[in-house]
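FIELD: query
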Amino acid sequence: MITAIVFVRAEVNRIPEVAQQLADIDGVSEVYSVTGTIDLIAMVRVRNIDDVAAVVSDKVNKVAGVIDTETHVAFRAYSTHDLEAAFAIGN
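FIELD: result
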């Protein structure tokens, strides 16, 4: 599994719609609105690096209202806290 963190700058008046459209893309697992110089962070989780390119270049960048993206590919995870919580039953 490849994880990519995509920083997204969007048209300010379209941030909620852009976020929802990004969240609806196959391969995008989460979208966060954030403070700072970027507007949204999209988490992309796919099987291989070619799929990262397909999701970001062919889908994310083509969402109306997206101004710019910056993609960071993760190569090592140091915390499994969120994953363990997501799969916990009865907690």
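FIELD: remark
The radius of gyration is 14 Å.
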